[in-house]
């Protein structure tokens, strides 16, 4: 085409910081909270292997105000992650077919959230049950 | 078409602010605002047509069917990728309606974007059925059950409007990413039980610019005017690509599509 001089607009640098991308940004950012939990648990396993003193130190850390604040942050992060992750889950899997019908995506999200809530309750009950 | 007062009451006036770019005179795009009378039933496309017919004949935009089937009039309407024919002016009244060309594409002129690269992507995915085994006419048709159809059917509804590309920040960051629309079409064929061209198409899926540029933002599926769900198509292919990667260590590949119950199709 003669005279064509296409103009290329640069992408907005902060696109991730505005709707409709906020849910995505939240999901990716709160993955840090999931990794944080894993690091705390891993530290517990390593200290358990290192002897009683190290394990006691880890338990003392868990009871410290710093740890409680950190875990509160982790909990908020995990809740946001669970919500946004199950919202996208049906997009990440092949079409689920039961009988001869495709299962609606909202059902898959609802099932994921239901399992998450049930797990949360079971872990709380378990924690209450093993409490000395 | 001037607004007919009899059709939808007395016409009101809405301010339409559009991004203009005339490559022969402008060094970069600039805004221009028009005052457009409109009635209840007028689409944004009709608003643009009013501008072109009555206010400014130099305004350029693409359109054809004006009923959401040709996919020509995609643009950023109020900051969102939409079809101009599927949006109505009254939804933006009394505010100012801001119209831009589709995001992430080079602007050819005013609201017209360059589509050449997109067309090349569509061509690159073997967008046709490649039969598993050739059949003679006297052997009859290739049969398919309703269930086998359901596995890919929405992916065949794409109208190539490119709204999903304007919604995709990864395409914005990397224009070589094959993108949601072409991937949906790819899955339309890969997911078809009659098709045998998957191996050819997977070579494209496996690459950095194939499925793996996608980070599952999901906005592409939200803006799709045909509920094609391209995000699902791309992410199914990520799963498939990962499966292929691990299966190569076992020295085999697997066909994840179900065999036809009763053995109707080849």
How would you explain this protein's 3D organization?
- The complex is a heterodimer of chains A (132) and B (266).
- By secondary structure, chain A is mostly helical.
- Chain A is 68% helix and 3% strand.
- Chain A has five helices and two strands.
- In chain A, a hairpin with a 2-residue loop joins β1 and β2 (101-102).
- Chain B contains ten helices and seven strands.
What are the main properties of this structure?
heterodimer; A: 132 residues; mainly alpha; 3 helical TM bundles of succinate and fumarate reductases; two-stranded antiparallel ribbon; 2 strands; flat; B: 266 residues; alpha+beta; Ubiquitin-like (UB roll); Fumarate Reductase Iron-sulfur Protein, Chain B, domain 2; 2 domains; five-stranded mixed sheet; elongated; disordered C terminus
Total separate domains of chain A: 1
CATH superfamily of chain A: Fumarate reductase/succinate dehydrogenase, transmembrane subunit
Overall structural class of chain B, as computed from helix and strand content, comes to alpha+beta
* Total tally of structural domains of chain B: 2
CATH architecture of chain A: Up-down Bundle
- CATH fourth-tier homologous superfamily of the largest domain in chain B: Alpha-helical ferredoxin
Q: Please count the helical segments of chain A.
A: 5
Please compute the radius of gyration of chain A using only Cα atoms. 22 Å
Helix count of chain B equals 10
- The proportion of residues forming helix of chain A, as a percent range, comes to 55-70%
Strand content of chain B: 5-15%
Largest interface: A-B, 27 and 35 residues
E-strand count of chain A:
2
Taken from the alpha-carbon principal axes, the silhouette of chain B is elongated
Task: Please name the CATH topology of chain A.
Answer: 3 helical TM bundles of succinate and fumarate reductases
Class per helix and strand makeup of chain A? mainly alpha
């Amino acid at each position: 085409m003669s005279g064509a001089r296409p103009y290329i607009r640069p992408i907005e640098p902060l696109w991730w910081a505005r709707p409709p991308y906020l849910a995505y940004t939240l999901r990716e950012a709160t993955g840090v909270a999931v990794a944080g939990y894993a690091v705390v648990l891993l530290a517990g396993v390593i200290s358990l292997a290192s002897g009683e003193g190290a394990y006691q130190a880890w338990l003392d850390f868990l009871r410290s105000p710093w740890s409680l604040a950190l875990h509160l942050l982790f909990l908020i992060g995990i809740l946001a992650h669970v919500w946004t992750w199950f919202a996208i889950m049906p997009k990440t899997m092949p079409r689920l077919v039961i009988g001869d019908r495709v299962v609606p995506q909202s059902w898959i999200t609802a099932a994921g959230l239901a399992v998450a809530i049930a797990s949360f309750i079971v872990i709380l009950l378990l924690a209450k049950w093993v409490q000395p | 078409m001037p607004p007919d007062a009899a059709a939808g009451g007395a016409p009101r006036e809405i301010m339409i602010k559009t991004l203009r770019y005339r490559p022969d005179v402008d060094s970069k795009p600039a805004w221009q605002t028009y005052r457009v009378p409109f009635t209840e039933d007028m689409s944004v496309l009709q608003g643009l047509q009013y501008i072109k017919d009555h206010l400014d004949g130099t305004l350029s935009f693409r359109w054809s069917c004006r009923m959401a089937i040709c996919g020509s009039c995609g643009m950023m309407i109020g900051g969102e990728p939409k079809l101009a024919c599927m949006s109505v002016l009254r939804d933006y009244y009394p505010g100012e309606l801001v119209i831009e060309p589709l995001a992430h594409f080079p602007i050819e002129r005013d609201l017209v974007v360059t589509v050449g690269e997109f067309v090349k992507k569509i061509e690159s995915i073997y967008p046709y059925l490649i039969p598993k085994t050739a059949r003679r006419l006297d052997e009859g048709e290739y049969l398919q059950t309703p269930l086998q159809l359901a596995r890919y059917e929405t992916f065949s509804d794409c109208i190539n409007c490119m709204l999903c590309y304007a919604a995709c920040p990864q395409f914005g960051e990397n224009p070589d990413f094959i993108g949601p629309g072409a991937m949906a079409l790819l899955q339309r064929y890969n997911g078809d039980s009659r098709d045998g061209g998957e191996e050819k198409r997977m070579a494209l899926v496996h690459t950095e610019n194939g499925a793996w540029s996608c980070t599952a933002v999901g906005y592409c599926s939200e803006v799709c005017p045909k509920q094609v769900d391209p995000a699902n198509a791309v992410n199914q292919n990520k799963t498939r690509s990962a499966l292929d990667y691990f299966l190569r260590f076992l020295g085999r590949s697997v066909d994840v599509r179900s065999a036809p119950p009763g053995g109707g199709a080849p």
